[in-house]
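Note to self: keep these together.
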Amino acid sequence: MTLDELFDKVNEKAATFVPTRPAPDAKILLNIEGPDSRQWLAAFEDGRGRLAVYAGEAADVTVTVSEDTLLSVATHKLTTTMAFLTGKVRVEGDMDLVGALGCLWPE
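Structure:
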């Protein structure tokens, strides 16, 4: 899976996303490092999630992760806990908000 494929799958899921538990209203900036580096903004508003190319909006938390690590987490080859504990993910801001990202990953 590539970042573009992940982006498409996440937005497809977000279009029909109905949370089983309330997600906090939050904006999470994803700094993705690697050959295809980019920034995405995961926004949760009114119980809905969306992922978009970052356009300078203020974020509540910033997550910095490599492309490989993000794809491993999104495809369930690596848990977010293990990625964080091994230093593969860096978080600046309210770490509790980062948990909301998991509901957007493809099955």
